[in-house]
Amino acid sequence: MENLDIMVLRTLLAWRSAGQRALLVTVVRTWGSSPRPIGSIMAMNEMGSVVGSVSGGCIEDDLIDRHTKAYSSNGAMPQGAPQFVKYGISADEAHRFGLPCGGTLELCLESDPDPASLSELIQTLAQGHLVQRHLNLATGAVSLQLTDQPESLQMSAEALVNTFGPEYRMLIIGAGQMSEYLATMALFNGFAVTMCDPREEYRGSWQVAGVRLTHEMPDDVVREFKADRRTCVVALTHDPKLDDLALLEALETEAFYVGGIGSRRNNEARRARMMEHFDQTEDSLKRLRGPIGIYIGSKTPAEIAVSVMAELLAVKNGVTLPRDMAVAQAKNDLEVVHNDPGLPVCGVLSRS
Fold first, then answer.
1. Distances (CA, A) of 230 to 41, 58, 74
2. Is 306 helix (H, G, I), strand (E, B) or coil?
3. Is the separation of the CB atoms in 87 and 59 below 8 Å?
4. Is CATH 3.40.50.720 correct for 168-294?
5. What long-range pairs does 182-189 form, CB within 8 A, spacing at least 24?
C-alpha cells in the first residue's frame, strides 16, 4: 500500500491533469484531542470524491456539502488565495463533527493546485528526497525546496511550509511465516516492503502480494538498498550466516530501526560473535535491537509480528517506550517474580 501522502498527491494530480477543479486540505492547527495530526492532507474534487482524511469522516462530509455539487445545489469550490476554516470550536460542533471532547482543528483549503508543481513534487519524492512545499498564503503560489531533515508543519502570516517524505521502506531478511505477517502489516502502514531470502525453498512459497522479492545474499542487498532514515531492516531467518552480516551492514547506514529475531540467549550469542569475529564493540552495537518487539506475551508467528510492528512504529514515530515493555526486560522481571515467591505477581503479569 502506497504512502498515504503520495497517494493523495497522485490522485490530486490526476484530477487536475484531467481539468477537474479540486481542493488540497491540510490540517494546520489542533487544540486538545484531534483525529489527525498537524500536516495531514486530503484532496477533494468538484464531484465530491475524496482521498486521504482530516477526521473520521464527518468533517469530510461537511466539506463535500459546502464546496461541491455532490450533495448541495449551491455548493461551489472556492477560488483564489488559500482559505482557513475551523471545526469543533463549540461543544455542539465537536459533537456534530465527531471530534473528541475539547477537540478543535483548523484546516487550510488550497484551491486548484498547479498540476506542474504537483508532478514535480511527486517525481522528487519518487527519487527518495525529502521536500519542503512552500505555499504563499497571499497568492497561492507554490515553491519546492529539498531538505535533509524531517520537520513538522510550519506556518507564518505569509507562508505554509509542509515537509513531505518518500515512502518508508522495510527490508525483511528471511521469507518465513512470521515475515508474511510482518510484511502484510507493513504494507497496510504505508511501507514499501522488500523481502530477501537466498533460500529457494522458503522464497518459493511466499504469498504476500505487493512485496518485492530478491534472492541475493542479504548483506549484498543491504548495501544496494542504501538504507536511509526512512528505512528499517529486520532479520528473521534465525540463521547467523544470513542475519549477522546483513545486520552489520545495516548498522553502517542511517536506518531508523535495525533488529534481529531471537531469544535473549540467541541475541547475546549474536552480539558475542560480532564482537569476537567482526571487531564490534558494545558502542558500535548500541543501535542493534534484539530481542525485537514489545512484550505482549506473544507466542504465535502472528502475535510476534504484531509485537515487532508495534515497536517499529513507536521508533518511527519518535515514541520512547517504557523500559519494562522491552521483551528482554519484561521476561527478566517475570523470572525474578517466579523465582521469588515472596514478591507480588500482580502488576508484573499485567504487562503481558
1. 20, 32, 44
2. helix
3. yes
4. yes
5. 182/234, 182/236, 182/305, 182/308, 182/309, 183/208, 183/211, 184/208, 185/305, 185/306, 185/309, 186/309, 187/1, 187/211, 188/1, 189/1, 189/309, 189/313
Domain residue limits, the chain: 4-164, 168-294
Distance (Å, whole) CA 85 – CA 69: 19
C-alpha to C-alpha distance for 214 and 242, rounded to whole angstroms: 14
What pTM value is reported for the model?
0.73
Structure confidence by residue, pLDDT tens digits, 62-86 = 898 888 866 556 667 888 999 999 9
Q: Cβ–Cβ contacts within 10 Å for residue 242, how many?
A: 21
Model confidence over 230-249: pLDDT tens digits?
899 999 999 999 999 999 99
Alpha carbon distance 26, 270 (integer Å): 46
Yes or no: say if 22 and 46 are a contact pair by the CB < 8 Å rule. Answer: yes
Which cell numbers hold the place of 145?
525546496
Nearest to 285 by CA among 308, 310, 259, 309: 259
